[in-house]
C-alpha cells in the first residue's frame, strides 16, 4: 500500500508506541516521520554562522516487513542522507525514525546493537567499501566479530552463498573483479543474518555484463532469506526490476511514492515524469 | 606485477644497513678499544693497524666511529619511539574526532611544541636534569611528537571519509576497534615514512647536542662529540673532523633516501602515477 | 574524413588494443561501446596522441590529410584542439580551478592564433552556443561555482572553440544525473561536426549515434548501423550485452553473461570472448576476423 509523503495513509501505524501493531508479517519495520536534516556549511564570516543546508525536509516513509522498497533520486536529492539516517549512521535534526518499533534517535553505538544485527548495508563502490588491507575472511567476519558472535565456519558458507569459492577467503579485495567484490560485500552484509538489507546503488559501479548477475543474486537472497530490502538508486528502471514500492526523491523531499508499476506507468508528480522521460532506453533506436 | 624498486630506496637501505652493521659488529669486535687513551699514539697517522688514524688522546678513530654508530642508532630508536608512541595515538584521536574539543586541544598543544626548537628544549632539559644521552633522547623525542601527530592526523582524516570506515560502522564496529583494525593498518605506511625521516633529524639533533656538550657524555663515543673534539685541530688534522662528519652526513642521507623511497614505494597513488608516466 | 587502419595499442608486452579499423564521415555520429578493459578509451587517447608514456600505438590514423599516429608531438599539438578535440568524463578535474571559465575557453583559441580580445568575445558566444544561461556571467565564474552539468557544457565549449572536424567524447555524461544527461546528449548531437562517442551505456549510444563499434578485449567484435546491430546482434558478446542491458519487470531473472571481464592481457587467445561465451567451440581457438559489409562481426557461431 502506498502512503504519500507527509500524509500517512490511514492504515499506517497511528500510535508511536504500538510499533508492533498489526500482523508481525506485514507490519511496518522501518518508519520515518517528518524527518529533517540540516547541515551547516563551514562559516565564512566571523559574525554569522555558516549557511544552513536542508538536505532532508519533512520526509516520511514506511517500509513493511518483507517489502522491497526502492528510493530513487538524483545527486543532491537527499537519498544518501536519508539512507544514512535509516541506518543510524547519522542523526536527524528533527523527526522520528523507528526500527521495529524502537526509536533510533540519540542512541549510543552500544544501544544500536539490535539495529546493527538486524540491518546491514551494501555500498555502491565495492572497491572503496572494503578495507584494502584486510583479507576477505576478516572482511566477511567483521560484522560477527563486532557483534561478539562466533564466526566458526560461517565465512565459507557465506562465500558459497554468494557464489565465491572458499579459497577467496585468503585473498585481498584488489585481487577480485568489481562484480566479485560486490559479492564479497553482500556476503559480509549477510553475516549476522540480518532482517533488512540496505543496498546503496549496488550496481552503479559495475559493468553492464555483471550487473545482471548481482541483481539476480540479490533477488535470490532476498527470496531465500525472507529479507526486507531497501534499494537506493538513481535509475528508476533498475528499481522497477527489483522493488515493489518506490519513493521518488527530489530536493530533500519525497515527491511521489507508491507501487513501482503504477509510478512507472502513470507518474503523477512532474518531477517523476521528467525523470522517466530522461532515462535513455534501447527502444529509442528500435 | 613486477616489483620495481627505485634507486633511492636501494641506496638508502644500503647506507642505513652500513650504519646498523657497524653498530652490531662493534658489540663483538672493534680494531682497538675506542676509549683507550694512549699518549704515545697521539694523533697517529692512518695505517699500521689504525686504518683511520687516532685522535689527540691516541684513541682509534675507526673504533670510535663504530661504537658511535651504536649511540646514534640508540638515540634515533628511542627518540623516534617516544615520538611515535605519543604522536600516533594523539594524531589518530584528533583525526577520528575532527570537531571534538580533544582534537582541538591536541592540535593546539601540538602547535605550541612545534614552535619550540628541539635543541632549545634539550639544552633546557640538560640544564635541569644534567646533560646526557637519555636527556637528549627524551628532548628530541618530545620535540618530534608534533611531526608524528600531524602526519597521523592528516592520514586518519583521509581514511575516515572512506566508505570502508562507514561500512565498519554499519557493521557495528566502535571507535577503538575502527582505530586498530582499519585506521592504523591504512596509515601505517605513512608513519613508517615519517619514522625514517624523523630518524634522520634525530641523528642530526644528537650530533648537534653532543657538539654543544649537551648530549652524550665522555667517554662514550659519539659522532657529534668526535666533531667537537676535532674542532681545535681542524686546520692541522682535518681528517679528525672529516670522518665523523662524513658518517653523520651519510647516515642522515641514508634515512632520508629510505623515507622518500618508502613513500614512493608504499603509496599506491604515487606508484600508479609513476607507472603511468 | 577520419580513417583508422590497424590501430594497435600496447603497454610493454601487453597488447591492449588490437587491429582496430574504422572510418567516420563528416557529420557522422559513431558510438564506441565497451566495458571496462575493452580498450575503448585507449583507442580515443591514441587518436588524440595523448597516450600515457610507455604506451605506444601502431597502425595508421588519418584525419583529412593529417596523420595522427607516429607524428612528432609538435605537429600533434597544432592538430589537437583545432582539428580534433575531446571531452572527458570528469569535468571538474579537466578544468583549471584557479582560472575563470571564460578565460579557459578563450585560451584554446589564442593558443591557435586568435587575437586575445576576439577570443574573449568568442568565448562568450561559445558559452551561449552550448546553451549556458547568462553566458556573460558564466564566463566570469570559476569552475567550482558551476554545477556538474554546467562544467561539462564549458568543456564542450572549449572542445568546439576552434571549429574542429572531429569531436571525441569519452563518457561525457557518466558523471551527470539522468535529467542533465539528456540535455547534454541532445546538445552534443546538435553541435558535433563529426562524433566519436565512447561509452559503456548502450542506451546512451542508442539515443545519439547512427553507427556503432562494439569493443571487447581490445578488439572490435561487431560494427554496423546501430539499428541493425541492436535489433539483430550477430556476435555473442553484443547479444549478451544487449540482453543484460534490458531490465525486465520484477520477478523475472535477468539474462547474464557468465564470469567477468578479465584484466588487461588475460583475455584468451583466438576469440577474446570464448571463455565467457555459451556457444564457444573448438573453432573459437582461432581468431575470427571481422567480416561483413556494413554490418560486420568477428564470431564463429554468430546469432541469427
TrEMBL record, chain A:
<dbReference type="InterPro" id="IPR003439">
    <property type="entry name" value="ABC_transporter-like_ATP-bd"/>
</dbReference>
<feature type="domain" description="ABC transporter">
    <location>
        <begin position="30"/>
        <end position="276"/>
    </location>
</feature>
<dbReference type="InterPro" id="IPR003593">
    <property type="entry name" value="AAA+_ATPase"/>
</dbReference>
<dbReference type="Pfam" id="PF00005">
    <property type="entry name" value="ABC_tran"/>
</dbReference>
<dbReference type="GO" id="GO:0016887">
    <property type="term" value="F:ATP hydrolysis activity"/>
</dbReference>
<dbReference type="InterPro" id="IPR017871">
    <property type="entry name" value="ABC_transporter-like_CS"/>
</dbReference>
<keyword id="KW-0547">Nucleotide-binding</keyword>
<dbReference type="GO" id="GO:0055085">
    <property type="term" value="P:transmembrane transport"/>
</dbReference>
<dbReference type="GO" id="GO:0015833">
    <property type="term" value="P:peptide transport"/>
</dbReference>
<dbReference type="Pfam" id="PF08352">
    <property type="entry name" value="oligo_HPY"/>
</dbReference>
<dbReference type="InterPro" id="IPR027417">
    <property type="entry name" value="P-loop_NTPase"/>
</dbReference>
<feature type="region of interest" description="Disordered">
    <location>
        <begin position="1"/>
        <end position="27"/>
    </location>
</feature>
<keyword id="KW-0067">ATP-binding</keyword>
<keyword id="KW-0813">Transport</keyword>
<protein>
    <submittedName>
        <fullName>ABC transporter ATP-binding protein</fullName>
    </submittedName>
</protein>
From TrEMBL, chain B:
<dbReference type="Pfam" id="PF00528">
    <property type="entry name" value="BPD_transp_1"/>
</dbReference>
<keyword id="KW-0472">Membrane</keyword>
<feature type="transmembrane region" description="Helical">
    <location>
        <begin position="191"/>
        <end position="214"/>
    </location>
</feature>
<feature type="transmembrane region" description="Helical">
    <location>
        <begin position="7"/>
        <end position="29"/>
    </location>
</feature>
<dbReference type="InterPro" id="IPR050366">
    <property type="entry name" value="BP-dependent_transpt_permease"/>
</dbReference>
<feature type="transmembrane region" description="Helical">
    <location>
        <begin position="240"/>
        <end position="262"/>
    </location>
</feature>
<dbReference type="InterPro" id="IPR000515">
    <property type="entry name" value="MetI-like"/>
</dbReference>
<keyword id="KW-1133">Transmembrane helix</keyword>
<protein>
    <submittedName>
        <fullName>Peptide ABC transporter permease</fullName>
    </submittedName>
</protein>
<keyword id="KW-0813">Transport</keyword>
<dbReference type="GO" id="GO:0005886">
    <property type="term" value="C:plasma membrane"/>
</dbReference>
<feature type="transmembrane region" description="Helical">
    <location>
        <begin position="73"/>
        <end position="97"/>
    </location>
</feature>
<feature type="transmembrane region" description="Helical">
    <location>
        <begin position="134"/>
        <end position="152"/>
    </location>
</feature>
<keyword id="KW-0812">Transmembrane</keyword>
<dbReference type="GO" id="GO:0055085">
    <property type="term" value="P:transmembrane transport"/>
</dbReference>
TrEMBL record, chain C:
<keyword id="KW-0472">Membrane</keyword>
<dbReference type="GO" id="GO:0005886">
    <property type="term" value="C:plasma membrane"/>
</dbReference>
<keyword id="KW-0547">Nucleotide-binding</keyword>
<dbReference type="InterPro" id="IPR013563">
    <property type="entry name" value="Oligopep_ABC_C"/>
</dbReference>
<dbReference type="InterPro" id="IPR003593">
    <property type="entry name" value="AAA+_ATPase"/>
</dbReference>
<protein>
    <submittedName>
        <fullName>ABC transporter ATP-binding protein</fullName>
    </submittedName>
</protein>
<dbReference type="InterPro" id="IPR050388">
    <property type="entry name" value="ABC_Ni/Peptide_Import"/>
</dbReference>
<dbReference type="InterPro" id="IPR003439">
    <property type="entry name" value="ABC_transporter-like_ATP-bd"/>
</dbReference>
<dbReference type="InterPro" id="IPR027417">
    <property type="entry name" value="P-loop_NTPase"/>
</dbReference>
<dbReference type="GO" id="GO:0016887">
    <property type="term" value="F:ATP hydrolysis activity"/>
</dbReference>
<keyword id="KW-0813">Transport</keyword>
<dbReference type="GO" id="GO:0015833">
    <property type="term" value="P:peptide transport"/>
</dbReference>
<dbReference type="InterPro" id="IPR017871">
    <property type="entry name" value="ABC_transporter-like_CS"/>
</dbReference>
<comment type="similarity">
    <text>Belongs to the ABC transporter superfamily.</text>
</comment>
<dbReference type="Pfam" id="PF08352">
    <property type="entry name" value="oligo_HPY"/>
</dbReference>
